[in-house]
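ok so for the tutorial part 2 we go from a plain amino acid sequence to predicted structure tokens. step 1 is just haveing the sequence, like this:
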Amino acid sequence: MISRRPLLERGRLVVLLALLPLLALAQHATGRLSVHYLNVGQADAIYIECPEAEHHNMLIDSGDLTAMRYPGSPKLFQDQLKALMGSRKHLDVVVSTHPHSDHTGSLLWVLNNFEVGTFIDDGMQYDSATYKAIEARAKALADAGKLKFLHATDLANNSTDSDFCPATNLDAVLVKPSNFGHDPNPNNNSVVIRLTYDQETFLFTGDAETEEEALLLQDPGTKPLIAANVLKAGHHGSNTSSSQAFLDAIHPKQVVVSAGLKDVGTNKGYKHPRAETIRRFLQYTADNGTQQQRMIDAFDTAKNEWTTVQINKGIYDTALDGTVVLLSDGQNTWNEADAPPSDGTATGVVAPSTVSYVYTKGSKVYHFADCADARNIKSENRIESSTPPKGKELHRGCPR
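step 2 — the prediction. this is what the tokens look like for a chain of 400 residues:
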């Protein structure tokens, strides 16, 4: 009789060899996770890179639609993303938290210029030519087999469809409460993502307001998922978000606010962040000590006026700090600006990007620095600023 043992051993070897590529991918990451809260004015855009060797990545939102809404927002986003990506053309996961233009501004540009593995939106109908164009492009790419197009309304709570990193100790999941998708306010149908790297957790809530926060707190399936070390402040630090009960459940050590400059562009009307919200954050970041105390512009709703609030190291604001880059080794999370690499290695991140503005004293318009008209302004008449000048309109011929 012929023994079957050699055949069985050969079969096990074949299976093992077939699994080797998968085992190589499923590795325990030990490097630095980088989370970039991009300075895009009164808007949101977050770029995340996995610490493993291939630097798998995720993009959440993409800044505002036009420079007329907030000066430089599309250019700020696109320039920073191109710098971060370098020669790479693949984004593993792109999340559109909700269809408002200060979050979806450059998503069509992203779909047209990068290879996207998975595109996730909130799944809601929205009457916007901009978002319909984004949906149509995503659907066309999905129909052609070039990306996976998913809607949060079709996914389960704790879904791993948003998990962009193959490392075994890092995951990104959808946090979806019961009754998600039934609020008439798109903000309250924001796609919420929880990112966990060993002991460190990041929470991204889009523009979720107190109504969606309440759903997250009431649902026993989502409440345990919202505790986080780092919170991206909902709705640009508005007083309609970050309720006391929600913050009590999260208990963040660090909070990042993505908002525009005082009285610039759309922030003339939105007036974000709100002073009362910033003061609520301070209850949780006080444990970080008094290091780097500085003043932030915030609108006091009760007094109906702009004021300044003193913040500490645990609160970051893109209007004040520019692009905020948080790094994590899975045990601690710190601001890149506070801790340069001790081993001399590159972190794969870029310095905060800024837009400079050029104008002349008597002109009614101002320009981006790279506008052809700006380059023709004589040096003796040229005035440069890091913020848009008040009382002037952006030149319509500037590149956007």
